[in-house]
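> forwarded from #structure-qc
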C-alpha cells in the first residue's frame, strides 16, 4: 500500500514539474490603479495555491482548538462509578418457555 502511495506522489510531482516547465512565460498582474507586476505563470499559480492552503488551515484552526480543549476536558473528568445491585440469594434459575419440550427444529 505504501508503494502505491509513493507512486501516486511521484506521479503528482512529475505532473507539477511538467506544468512548471510548460508555463514559464510571464504574466502581468494588475492590482490597484497604476500598479502591475510581471511574474512567471507557475509562480503565480504556486502562490495562489499556498495562499489557499494557508487560508484553509486558518479556517480549520478554531475547530482543532475546540476539539483539543474538549478532549483535554474529558480526560480530566472523573470516571463515574456505576453501582451494581447485589445478586439475589441463590443462583438464578433458567426460564423455560411453554414450548421447551418441542424440538428446536420443529420435527
Amino acid at each position: 500500500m505504501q508503494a502505491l502511495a509513493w507512486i501516486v506522489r511521484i506521479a503528482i510531482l512529475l505532473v507539477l514539474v511538467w506544468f512548471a516547465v510548460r508555463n514559464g512565460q510571464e504574466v502581468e498582474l494588475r492590482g490597484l490603479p497604476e500598479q502591475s507586476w510581471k511574474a512567471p505563470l507557475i509562480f503565480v499559480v504556486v502562490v495562489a495555491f499556498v495562499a489557499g492552503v494557508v487560508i484553509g488551515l486558518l479556517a480549520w484552526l478554531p475547530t482543532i482548538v475546540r476539539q483539543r480543549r474538549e478532549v483535554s476536558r474529558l480526560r480530566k473528568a472523573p470516571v463515574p462509578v456505576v453501582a451494581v445491585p447485589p445478586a439475589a440469594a441463590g443462583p438464578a434459575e433458567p426460564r423455560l418457555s411453554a414450548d421447551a419440550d418441542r424440538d428446536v427444529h420443529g420435527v
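QC bot note: Residues 34 and 72 are 53 Å apart (CA to CA). The radius of gyration is 34 Å.
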